[in-house]
Amino acid sequence: MSCHPHHRHTYHRFLRVPASVRFPQLPSVVRPAPVEPIHSHPSEEPTLSGDTPAARPTTLPMPQPPRCGISARAAGSALPRPRREELGLARFNALTRGDTLTALLSCCGSRRWAERVAAHRPYPDPESLLAAADEACYDLTAAELNEALAEESLSPQPLVGARGPGTLAAHTALRAAHAEYERRFRHVFVICLDGYRDDELLDQVLSALRTRLGNEPDEERAIAADELRRLARGRLARLLSTGP
Question: What is the pTM of this model?
Answer without folding.
Answer: 0.64
